């Protein structure tokens, strides 16, 4: 199979072998899907392949907040009290300050290790896809300039007539502590010296 038909054309064997290897690689890639772990089988119900992507989400222990979800850059992920999977209201100016966790795939694994809740992909008003956790679209806050900083936690702002309250997403799915619920270390030490 790998021998040349003619001693005068040794390059032909290499070209045929390379073409065969390329075809085998394409066939193997088609059989294994997109390389995502868990969740979906990659079928969209009509026998065609649906794109599947495992989002790059991590759990990070942040002082005062506990274990929260962060993106690939270590920035906290947020949900708000207005958006749902079927109705995204944070668009336009809102989505400039609160960046949607966009994803190119049509689906994602529903579960990721160490995170309570079910992941899904929702369509935004502009047609892009956004990652959601338990029906709540995920966002990053532009003011979180460094990893682990959660400047947007419990922030309330209005956009287009809707009042949004933002909170970080914990790995357990519980609400993060409200800033007024847990005194800061400075407050504790000031009380001790009184």
Keywords:
194 residues; alpha+beta; 3-stranded antiparallel β-sheet; 3 helices; 10 strands; 19% helix; signal; Lipoprotein_repeat; Secreted repeat protein with Y-X4-D motif
Structural account:
The model is unreliable at 1-49 and 182-194 (pLDDT under 50). The chain has helices spanning 10-32, 93-97, 185-193; strands at 58-62, 66-70, 78-80, 98-100, 119-123, 129-133, 136-137, 139-141, 156-159, 162-168. The protein starts with 9 loop residues before the first helix and ends with a helix. The protein is α+β, with helices and mostly antiparallel strands. Strand 9 (156-159) and strand 10 (162-168) form a beta hairpin. It is globular and about 40 Å long. The chain is built from 3 helices and 10 strands, in the order αβββαβββββββα. Helix content is 19%, strand content 22%. The chain has a domain at 58-168. The strands form 4 sheets. The protein has a 3-stranded antiparallel beta sheet, with no helix packed on it. Residues 1-29 form the signal peptide. Keywords: Signal.
Q: Kindly state the percentage of residues in helix.
A: 10-25%
Taking all residues together, what is the mean pLDDT? 74
Q: Categorize the overall geometry.
A: globular
Total number of β-strand segments?
Answer: 10
Strand order of the largest sheet: 3-10-9
Backbone CA Rg: 24 Å
Strand content bin: 15-25%
Task: Give helix and strand order, one letter per element, not per position.
Answer: HEEEHEEEEEEEH
Biggest sheet descriptor: 3 strands, antiparallel
Question: Total number of helical segments?
Answer: 3
Could you tell me how far the N terminus lies from the C terminus, measured between alpha carbons in angstroms?
89 Å
Helix-strand category: alpha+beta
Region (Disordered): 34-53, 173-194
Biased composition (Low complexity): 183-194
Pfam families: Lipoprotein_15
Organism: Thermasporomyces composti
């Amino acid at each position: 199979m790998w021998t040349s038909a003619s001693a005068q054309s040794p390059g032909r064997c290499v070209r045929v072998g390379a073409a065969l290897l390329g075809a085998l690689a394409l066939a193997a890639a088609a059989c294994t899907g997109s390389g995502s772990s868990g969740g979906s089988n990659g079928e969209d119900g009509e026998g065609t392949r649906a794109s599947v992507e495992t989002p790059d989400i991590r759990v990070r222990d942040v002082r005062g907040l506990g274990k929260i979800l962060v993106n690939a850059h270590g920035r906290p992920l947020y949900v708000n009290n207005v958006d749902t999977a079927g109705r995204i209201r944070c668009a336009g100016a809102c989505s400039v300050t609160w960046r949607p966790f966009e994803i190119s795939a049509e689906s994602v694994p529903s579960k990721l290790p160490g995170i309570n809740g079910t992941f899904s992909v929702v369509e935004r008003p502009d047609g892009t896809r956004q990652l959601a956790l338990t029906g709540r679209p995920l966002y990053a806050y532009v003011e979180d300039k460094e990893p682990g900083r959660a400047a947007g936690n419990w922030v309330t702002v209005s956009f287009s007539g809707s009042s949004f309250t933002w909170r970080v997403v914990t790995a357990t799915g519980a609400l993060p502590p409200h800033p007024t619920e847990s005194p800061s270390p400075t407050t504790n030490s000031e009380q001790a010296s009184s």
